[in-house]
Design goal:
Blueprint (H helix, E strand, L loop, with lengths): L3 H5 L8 H23 L4 H10 L3 H17 L1 H17 L9 H11 L4 H10 L5 H5 L3 H13 L4 H13 L6 H10 L3 H13 L6
Length: 206
């Protein structure tokens, strides 16, 4: 794993944007896992206030100290994640290789609605993804694509591209979503793509 200082200075490194993206991805995954674990301790702050309110001063102070330790322990990770988000937003428009699809999907999944640049890059790259690469997407990455498809978000182009990638990946969980879209989507392009997916995945639904 690369050092924190190296991640902060990644933008100055003479590396292709795809390679920089993979480095950020490698560093961000354990960082977010650490943040997730410590996030469960944030209840200590309201608990401390409750204890202090009812006169349990010692326990209230201890709970407050525990909450402060939790915040301190995540300072590095929160700063790293904030920096990584900014660097991904800068790198995403420059990526051209389809090897960036997997990390872009994870960054989009981690950031949610705020991942505008990731979604725009994916909209360009997903139609170029071959069957072998589509089948190498993780369950979480395919799940994120299914979620986008189900919500027809963030755009018609993204939804169509995601549908076709899921078909190439042979993802049977896409079948009920494609069936719904083929019948009900307001977009003719999405309905047509959903029908192609149903034909491609016919018989694979569990």
């Amino acid at each position: 794993m690369i050092r924190y200082r190296e991640t902060l200075e990644l933008g100055a490194m003479a590396l292709p944007p795809e390679q920089q993206l993979h480095i950020l991805h490698k560093e961000s995954a354990p960082c977010l896992a650490h943040l997730g674990r410590w996030q469960h301790t944030l209840w200590l702050f309201p608990f401390a206030i409750l204890l202090l309110t009812v006169g349990q001063g010692l326990w209230g102070v201890l709970a407050l100290l525990g909450g402060c330790v939790s915040v301190a322990m995540t300072y590095r990770e929160r700063r790293l994640w904030s920096t990584a988000q900014g660097q991904v937003a800068t790198l995403a428009p420059a990526v051209r290789g389809t090897d960036a699809v997997a990390p872009l999907l994870d960054f989009a999944r981690w950031q949610g609605k705020g991942a505008v640049e990731c979604h725009e890059a994916l909209e360009r790259l997903l139609p170029r993804l071959d069957t072998t690469s589509a089948r190498q997407l993780t369950a979480a990455q395919r799940g994120y694509l299914r979620l986008c498809v189900e919500n027809q978000d963030p755009s018609v182009e993204f939804t169509v591209a995601a549908l076709l990638v899921l078909a190439s990946a042979g993802d049977p969980a896409t079948v009920p979503i494609a069936r719904q879209l083929a019948a009900c989507s307001s977009s003719q392009r999405i309905r047509d793509a959903a029908q192609l997916v149903l034909e491609e995945l016919h018989g694979t639904e569990n």
